[in-house]
Amino acid sequence: NAGVTQTPKFRILKIGQSMTLQCTQDMNHNYMYWYRQDPGMGLKLIYYSVGAGITDKGEVPNGYNVSRSTTEDFPLRLELAAPSQTSVYFCASLGGGWSGNTIYFGEGSWLTVV
Amino acid sequence: LAKTTQPISMDSYEGQEVNITCSHNNIATNDYITWYQQFPSQGPRFIIQGYKTKVTNEVASLFIPADRKSSTLSLPRVSLSDTAVYYCLVGEGDNTDKLIFGTGTRLQVFP
User: pLDDT, tens digit, for every residue of B46-84?
Assistant: First the structure.
Protein backbone atom coordinates (compact mmCIF):
# COMPACT_ATOMS: atom_id res chain seq x y z
CA ASN A 1 0.00 0.00 0.00
CA ALA A 2 1.63 3.22 -1.18
CA GLY A 3 -0.97 5.55 0.39
CA VAL A 4 -0.02 9.19 -0.19
CA THR A 5 3.22 9.71 -2.08
CA GLN A 6 5.01 13.04 -2.31
CA THR A 7 7.93 13.99 -4.52
CA PRO A 8 10.52 15.35 -4.23
CA LYS A 9 11.40 14.77 -0.60
CA PHE A 10 14.03 17.51 -0.57
CA ARG A 11 14.59 20.47 -2.84
CA ILE A 12 16.59 23.68 -2.83
CA LEU A 13 15.27 26.50 -4.96
CA LYS A 14 16.70 29.87 -5.80
CA ILE A 15 14.60 32.96 -5.30
CA GLY A 16 12.36 33.52 -8.29
CA GLN A 17 12.45 29.93 -9.51
CA SER A 18 9.31 27.86 -9.90
CA MET A 19 8.62 24.23 -9.15
CA THR A 20 5.87 21.70 -8.66
CA LEU A 21 5.46 19.44 -5.67
CA GLN A 22 3.80 16.23 -6.73
CA CYS A 23 1.26 14.34 -4.65
CA THR A 24 -0.38 11.06 -5.61
CA GLN A 25 -2.71 8.83 -3.66
CA ASP A 26 -3.79 5.32 -4.57
CA MET A 27 -6.78 5.04 -2.22
CA ASN A 28 -9.32 6.55 -4.61
CA HIS A 29 -9.95 9.37 -2.13
CA ASN A 30 -11.95 12.34 -3.29
CA TYR A 31 -10.55 14.84 -0.81
CA MET A 32 -6.96 16.04 -0.95
CA TYR A 33 -5.09 18.74 0.98
CA TRP A 34 -1.84 20.63 0.97
CA TYR A 35 -0.39 21.94 4.23
CA ARG A 36 2.81 23.73 5.03
CA GLN A 37 4.64 23.63 8.32
CA ASP A 38 7.29 26.14 9.23
CA PRO A 39 9.95 25.13 11.78
CA GLY A 40 8.47 24.77 15.25
CA MET A 41 5.02 25.82 14.06
CA GLY A 42 1.72 24.16 13.32
CA LEU A 43 0.24 23.10 9.99
CA LYS A 44 -1.33 25.69 7.74
CA LEU A 45 -3.78 24.74 5.00
CA ILE A 46 -2.71 26.03 1.58
CA TYR A 47 -5.27 24.53 -0.81
CA TYR A 48 -7.69 21.66 -0.81
CA SER A 49 -9.82 19.75 -3.27
CA VAL A 50 -13.05 17.81 -2.80
CA GLY A 51 -12.85 16.07 -6.15
CA ALA A 52 -11.39 16.16 -9.62
CA GLY A 53 -11.81 19.59 -11.18
CA ILE A 54 -12.59 21.31 -7.85
CA THR A 55 -10.09 23.26 -5.77
CA ASP A 56 -10.44 25.81 -2.97
CA LYS A 57 -8.16 28.13 -1.08
CA GLY A 58 -7.06 27.39 2.43
CA GLU A 59 -5.54 29.70 5.02
CA VAL A 60 -2.34 30.62 3.16
CA PRO A 61 -2.84 30.27 -0.62
CA ASN A 62 -0.78 33.24 -1.80
CA GLY A 63 2.21 32.25 -3.92
CA TYR A 64 0.79 28.82 -4.73
CA ASN A 65 -1.42 27.22 -7.31
CA VAL A 66 -2.99 23.78 -7.54
CA SER A 67 -4.86 21.68 -10.05
CA ARG A 68 -6.86 18.49 -9.76
CA SER A 69 -7.29 16.91 -13.16
CA THR A 70 -7.51 13.37 -11.80
CA THR A 71 -8.66 11.80 -8.54
CA GLU A 72 -5.16 10.49 -7.84
CA ASP A 73 -3.02 13.59 -8.34
CA PHE A 74 -2.97 16.97 -6.61
CA PRO A 75 0.18 18.89 -7.59
CA LEU A 76 1.17 22.11 -5.82
CA ARG A 77 2.84 24.76 -7.94
CA LEU A 78 5.15 27.41 -6.50
CA GLU A 79 5.60 30.39 -8.76
CA LEU A 80 8.43 32.86 -8.16
CA ALA A 81 9.75 31.17 -5.04
CA ALA A 82 10.49 33.38 -2.05
CA PRO A 83 12.44 32.68 1.17
CA SER A 84 9.15 32.84 3.07
CA GLN A 85 8.14 29.65 1.29
CA THR A 86 10.91 27.68 2.95
CA SER A 87 8.94 25.06 4.79
CA VAL A 88 7.90 21.44 4.96
CA TYR A 89 4.95 20.64 2.76
CA PHE A 90 2.53 17.84 3.55
CA CYS A 91 -0.03 16.41 1.21
CA ALA A 92 -2.98 14.52 2.64
CA SER A 93 -6.04 12.67 1.42
CA LEU A 94 -9.41 11.78 2.90
CA GLY A 95 -11.93 9.26 1.69
CA GLY A 96 -15.48 10.54 1.32
CA GLY A 97 -16.56 13.39 3.53
CA TRP A 98 -14.91 14.52 6.72
CA SER A 99 -17.42 13.05 9.11
CA GLY A 100 -16.20 9.80 10.55
CA ASN A 101 -13.18 9.53 8.29
CA THR A 102 -9.48 10.05 8.87
CA ILE A 103 -6.81 11.86 6.92
CA TYR A 104 -3.77 10.12 5.54
CA PHE A 105 -0.61 12.18 5.25
CA GLY A 106 2.38 11.86 2.97
CA GLU A 107 5.90 11.89 4.35
CA GLY A 108 6.50 15.53 3.54
CA SER A 109 8.58 17.56 1.11
CA TRP A 110 11.32 19.76 2.54
CA LEU A 111 11.76 22.92 0.51
CA THR A 112 14.46 25.55 1.01
CA VAL A 113 14.45 28.80 -0.95
CA VAL A 114 17.79 30.63 -1.02
CA LEU B 1 -14.75 29.86 11.99
CA ALA B 2 -14.29 26.67 14.00
CA LYS B 3 -10.93 27.78 15.30
CA THR B 4 -9.44 25.47 17.87
CA THR B 5 -7.53 26.50 20.95
CA GLN B 6 -5.13 24.26 22.84
CA PRO B 7 -2.45 24.80 25.47
CA ILE B 8 0.89 25.51 23.84
CA SER B 9 2.79 22.97 25.89
CA MET B 10 2.51 20.46 28.71
CA ASP B 11 5.00 18.50 30.75
CA SER B 12 4.48 15.11 32.32
CA TYR B 13 6.38 12.17 33.76
CA GLU B 14 6.40 8.61 32.63
CA GLY B 15 3.48 6.58 33.93
CA GLN B 16 1.20 9.56 34.49
CA GLU B 17 -2.09 10.24 32.76
CA VAL B 18 -2.12 13.28 30.51
CA ASN B 19 -5.23 15.22 29.56
CA ILE B 20 -5.09 17.75 26.73
CA THR B 21 -8.12 19.93 26.17
CA CYS B 22 -9.11 21.63 22.94
CA SER B 23 -11.82 24.24 22.61
CA HIS B 24 -13.82 24.53 19.40
CA ASN B 25 -16.67 26.88 20.18
CA ASN B 26 -18.05 27.09 16.63
CA ILE B 27 -17.98 23.44 15.66
CA ALA B 28 -20.62 22.48 13.11
CA THR B 29 -23.42 20.19 14.22
CA ASN B 30 -22.32 17.44 11.85
CA ASP B 31 -18.60 17.77 12.44
CA TYR B 32 -16.33 15.25 14.09
CA ILE B 33 -13.37 15.97 16.33
CA THR B 34 -10.13 14.24 15.52
CA TRP B 35 -6.80 14.19 17.30
CA TYR B 36 -3.46 13.71 15.65
CA GLN B 37 0.06 13.09 16.92
CA GLN B 38 3.13 14.44 15.19
CA PHE B 39 6.74 13.55 15.75
CA PRO B 40 9.54 15.77 14.40
CA SER B 41 10.08 15.48 10.65
CA GLN B 42 7.00 13.30 10.20
CA GLY B 43 3.47 13.85 9.03
CA PRO B 44 0.68 13.78 11.61
CA ARG B 45 -0.81 10.42 12.40
CA PHE B 46 -4.32 9.63 13.55
CA ILE B 47 -4.94 8.96 17.24
CA ILE B 48 -8.68 9.04 17.83
CA GLN B 49 -11.91 10.54 16.53
CA GLY B 50 -15.29 11.18 18.08
CA TYR B 51 -18.58 12.97 17.71
CA LYS B 52 -19.96 13.03 21.25
CA THR B 53 -19.60 11.53 24.74
CA LYS B 54 -16.63 9.20 25.08
CA VAL B 55 -14.55 7.20 22.66
CA THR B 56 -11.76 4.84 23.65
CA ASN B 57 -9.23 2.91 21.63
CA GLU B 58 -6.02 1.08 22.43
CA VAL B 59 -3.95 4.24 22.82
CA ALA B 60 -6.25 7.01 24.07
CA SER B 61 -9.66 8.18 25.17
CA LEU B 62 -11.58 11.16 23.92
CA PHE B 63 -14.12 12.95 26.06
CA ILE B 64 -16.63 15.29 24.42
CA PRO B 65 -19.21 17.14 26.55
CA ALA B 66 -22.81 17.49 25.48
CA ASP B 67 -22.34 20.99 24.05
CA ARG B 68 -19.37 19.73 21.96
CA LYS B 69 -17.56 23.04 22.35
CA SER B 70 -14.50 21.34 23.70
CA SER B 71 -12.87 17.93 23.80
CA THR B 72 -10.24 16.28 25.97
CA LEU B 73 -7.68 13.80 24.78
CA SER B 74 -6.60 11.47 27.56
CA LEU B 75 -3.36 9.52 27.29
CA PRO B 76 -3.07 6.89 30.03
CA ARG B 77 0.33 6.11 31.53
CA VAL B 78 2.46 8.08 29.11
CA SER B 79 5.97 6.99 28.17
CA LEU B 80 8.94 8.87 26.74
CA SER B 81 7.82 7.88 23.25
CA ASP B 82 4.64 9.93 23.71
CA THR B 83 6.70 13.11 23.55
CA ALA B 84 5.22 14.79 20.48
CA VAL B 85 2.89 17.54 19.32
CA TYR B 86 -0.82 16.81 19.57
CA TYR B 87 -3.39 18.52 17.39
CA CYS B 88 -7.14 18.54 17.50
CA LEU B 89 -8.83 19.00 14.14
CA VAL B 90 -12.29 20.13 13.17
CA GLY B 91 -13.77 21.56 10.00
CA GLU B 92 -14.03 25.30 9.53
CA GLY B 93 -17.49 26.22 10.67
CA ASP B 94 -20.14 24.95 8.28
CA ASN B 95 -17.48 23.97 5.75
CA THR B 96 -16.40 20.70 7.29
CA ASP B 97 -14.27 19.97 4.23
CA LYS B 98 -11.86 22.78 5.03
CA LEU B 99 -9.75 21.17 7.71
CA ILE B 100 -7.84 23.65 9.84
CA PHE B 101 -5.28 22.53 12.39
CA GLY B 102 -4.86 24.41 15.61
CA THR B 103 -1.52 25.41 17.06
CA GLY B 104 -1.10 22.04 18.73
CA THR B 105 0.12 21.08 22.19
CA ARG B 106 3.74 20.14 22.64
CA LEU B 107 3.85 17.34 25.20
CA GLN B 108 7.18 16.63 26.86
CA VAL B 109 7.41 13.44 28.89
CA PHE B 110 10.24 13.17 31.41
CA PRO B 111 11.71 10.01 32.95
Answer: 999 999 999 999 999 999 999 999 999 999 999 999 999
| Domain of B17, in residue numbers | 9-110
Name which of B32, B42, B97 is nearest A48 (Cβ-Cβ). B97
Chain A residues touching B99 at Cβ < 8 A: 33, 45, 48, 94, 98, 103
Which residues does chain A have within 8 Å of residue B36's beta carbon, measured at their own beta carbons? 103
Position B22 in a domain:
yes
B89, B29 Cβ separation under 8 angstroms: no
Q: Which residue of A has its CA nearest to B103?
A: A42
pLDDT digits (tens, 9 = 90+) for A18-41: 999 999 999 999 999 999 999 888
Which residues fall within 8 angstroms of residue A10, CB to CB, at 6 or more apart?
A: A109, A110, A111
Domains of chain A: 4-105 (2.60.40.10)
Going by the DSSP 8-state scheme, the letter that residue A73 receives in this structure is B
Question: What digits encode the pLDDT tens for the residues A96-114?
Answer: 655 556 789 999 999 999 9
* Residue B97 burial (CB count, 10 A): 18
> How many domains does the structure of chain B reveal?
1
